[in-house]
Hints:
By secondary structure, this protein is an alpha+beta fold. It has a single domain (6-74), classed as Ribbon (Pemi-like Protein 1, Chain: D). The protein has helices at 18-23, 49-74; strands at 6-8, 11-13, 32-36, 41-45.
Amino acid sequence: MVxxxxxxxxxxxxILDKPILELLNVKMETPLxxxxxxxxxxxxxxxxxxxxxxxxxxxxxxxxxHSKTLRKLGM
Length: 75
């Protein structure tokens, strides 16, 4: 896919098509991180640092509450 910059005030902008946003699960309110390797621009959705910790806490809670049932299902 080839894109061109468009003028946005005194800045430049790139339009991201809806299929790309959907593929990356990016919404209008999703913070984006912009980095470069010196040759390319890399735009990535920000990953919440607490998301993994929240998931682990939830898994521990489920395991504690339903450990017997989960063991039976695993047999």
